[in-house]
Amino acid sequence: AGLEWPCIMDVKIGRRTWDPLATPEKRRAEEGKYKACRQRYGLCIPGFQFYAVRKGGALVRHGKDYGKRLTEDNIRDAFLLYLNATEDGRLSRTLLERFLADLRIIRDWARKQTTFRLYSSSVLLVYDAAQLGQCDDSALQRNTSLNASNGQTVAAPLAVKARMIDFAHAFPVDASEAGTVDDNYLQGVESLVGLFEQFLAAEGNVD
């Protein structure tokens, strides 16, 4: 809501995506999906859409078939697409920093929480591509809008967000693992933060 060109990516977190109640058939099916990325990074990309700024805002969608072709060698290309990298591979510094602010909060929580094990959960990435390239990059951090009823300026929703979603397969920690963190989930979040940090640290590749 409130975004002109909403760019959305579903990043499924965890090497293991089947829960303790899964049947053997379900386990085998899940193990065969997105194997290359899940084993290396503990995450995969079931799908995303973005409005291509370089193409005048044309909507581009990639689904599961695209995600299944991703490997540790080309997964960065998917993020570059989603983040609207320029033709020479440059990214918005503000966009990366805003995503990292949220992703680090999720990572720090995952480093401490010992109550649940999350399976087949995702981190949803959302931003408004219509705001990219504006002279004032602070627009990516927070919009303002005019309330028609009273004429006052009010804060609009943040235009860049990373949020935890999909908790249908959340399970309490087994007694044998009491006091331990969810390493399966943590690996994926650490990898996601690491990828964005690499983009940000790449000299000459951010504006």
UniProtKB/TrEMBL annotation:
The keyword Cytoplasm does not apply. Belongs to the inositol phosphokinase (IPK) family. InterPro entries: IPK (IPR005522), IPK_sf (IPR038286). It catalyses: 1D-myo-inositol 1,3,4,6-tetrakisphosphate + ATP = 1D-myo-inositol 1,3,4,5,6-pentakisphosphate + ADP + H(+); 1D-myo-inositol 1,4,5-trisphosphate + 2 ATP = 1D-myo-inositol 1,3,4,5,6-pentakisphosphate + 2 ADP + 2 H(+). It comes from the Eukaryota. The keyword DNA-binding does not apply. Keywords: ATP-binding, Kinase, Nucleotide-binding, Transferase. Gene3D superfamilies: Inositol polyphosphate kinase. Its EC number is 2.7.-.-. One of its GO terms (cellular component) is nucleus. It holds the Pfam family IPK. GO terms for molecular function: ATP binding; inositol tetrakisphosphate kinase activity; inositol-1,3,4,6-tetrakisphosphate 5-kinase activity; inositol-1,4,5-trisphosphate 3-kinase activity. This is Kinase. GO terms for biological process: inositol phosphate biosynthetic process.
